[in-house]
Specification:
The protein has 299 residues and is an alpha/beta fold. The protein has one domain: 3-Layer(aba) Sandwich (Rossmann fold), CATH 3.40.50. Helices cover 27% and strands 27% of the residues. The strands form 3 sheets. Strands 9-8-7-10-11-13-12-14 form an 8-stranded mixed β-sheet, sandwiched between helices. Helix 1 runs parallel beside helix 2. It is globular and about 55 Å long.
Length: 299
Amino acid sequence: MRAGLRRLRVAAARHNGQVNEAIPVSRTTDHGTAKLMPDVDRARAWLLTVDGAPQSYVDLDEPAYLEFEYTRRLGHVLDTVAEAGRPLDVVHLGGGALTLPRYVAATRPGSRQDVVEADRGLLELVAEYLPLPEGSGIAVHAADARAWLETAPDDHADVLIADVFGGSRVPAHLTTLAYAREAERVLRPDGVYLANLADAAPFGFLRSQLATFAAVFEELVLIAEPAVLRGRRFGNAVLVAAHRPFAITALARRTAADTFPARVERGASVREFTGPARPVEDADAVPSPEPPGGSFGIG
């Protein structure tokens, strides 16, 4: 699930001495009740929640601004996966308010992006209130993430980002060995897979995901807050997988210097963390664990 909010003040209120005319919007979509709430600290910034759980944060005036901890970490990977400014072909599984597609469009102009979101009603809400700029290069598809992936061509993307939650849990069919193989097929030989995951000690789900992707990709990196990795609290972890080495030094430097510092683990430390966990088969797949109450609430 999505974590790491600063204490947002979301309501219609004054901003920089002037009345912010934006008001919260609520709508029942295909998969729940979605709400868009303006952030009074940033003039054209919005928080999206679904059934009360924070899903996305977007600043229309500053699309390169990332609010949530896990999106910032994904952004650090995106910044270091290729030379600065180079356009990329990116697939996003899970749309929300299109935070990361907007980020890529702003930081890597000319990129071609596909966004796959199962909730058509949510896409319509976002398009109405938080429209994409002309020429963004972002194509939006209302479809199940795995079903869409299975029909995508080989060698289609430089980067594939999975940030799919049914409510507050990663759906079971997006956790398996067959799914990981589809992701690898759609990526180019030097492509990179990124996933937002969430778990807590004893990390049964997270360890199983590491084992699953280690069976398909040669290189794995895990990024998370030290307190999460030590089992002190439930939280997000970013999984990165590829067939090539990463710019670990640059990535570690960025994550350590972030407002929300995180550790970057790879190699032997990831293998030790994974332990005896086994890859997940379709017949045995289960969703990620339910977050404890209040894990991702808005302060």
